[in-house]
Amino acid sequence: MLMQVFSFVFGWINQNRLSKCVHKVSRSLNYFFTLLNIDVGVGKLVNVLVAVTFIVHMVSCGWYWIDETNDFEPTGWVARQGLLQVDLKFRYISAVYWTFQTLTTVGYGDIPAVTLYEKVYATLWMIGGFGLYSYTIGTL
Questions:
Q1: pLDDT tens digit string along 107-135?
Q2: How far is the CA of 68 from the CAs of 72, 77, 117, in angstroms?
Q3: Residue 16 domain-assigned?
Q4: I need a labelling partner for 100 at 20 to 30 A (CA). Which of 14, 55, 62, 78 fits?
Q5: Which residues, including other chains, have CB under 8 Å from residue 96's CB and lie 6 or more apart?
Q6: What range does the domain containing 96 cover?
Q7: Domains in the chain, number
Q8: CATH number for 98
Q9: How far apart are CA 17 and CA 119, in angstroms?
Q10: Can you tell me the distance from the alpha carbon of 34 to that of 46, in angstroms, rounded to the nearest whole number?
Q11: From the CB of residue 83, how many other CB atoms can be counted at a distance below 10 Å?
Q12: Sequential DSSP letters for 40-66
């Protein structure tokens, strides 16, 4: 399992290329807004939405990856939700749903973290969500 954790961490580091792509999109949007004389506040809002969407996507993929690495054991969230036989798109939507409910601190409890790895990941996301809130408020 330790090798899987290292592979996951290095996979996230490799996502640096993807974050550079998001940065380029942000710069392009700023240029576009400047050309069209669109308010700076709207530009900042769009940039924050792009960044939040990117982060939510990455966290959702990580949430799904945790269960996939453990071969979808019966105590994992995919099996508990009865998602083993459904399409991957529906699993992704469920992971995004968990990510948003954890980020917004709503936490309905319908997709709880039960295994050790899920609990650690959920805790790290709660801490990261606090940082994301700070970033969002500071940017706007």
A1: 787 888 899 999 999 999 988 888 888 87
A2: 5, 10, 12
A3: no
A4: 14
A5: 56, 57, 60
A6: 40-139
A7: 1
A8: 1.10.287.70
A9: 28
A10: 13
A11: 20
A12: HHHHHHHHHHHHHHHHHHHHHHHHHHH
Both tokens of residue 89?
A: 């798109």
Residue for token digits 């529906």? Answer: 90
Quote the tokens at residue 93: 């939507």
Taking only the tens place, the pLDDT of each residue in 129-139 is 888 888 777 77
26, two tokens: 């942000």
Question: CA dihedral defined by 130, 131, 134, 136, rounded to 10 degrees?
Answer: -100
Is residue 1 situated within a structural domain? no
For residue 87, the one-letter residue type is D
Number of H helices, E strands in the chain: 6, 0
Task: Give whole-number Cα distances, 120 to 16, 83, 125, in Å.
Answer: 23, 22, 9
- Whether this prediction's pTM lies above 0.90 is answered by no
Amino acid at 47: N
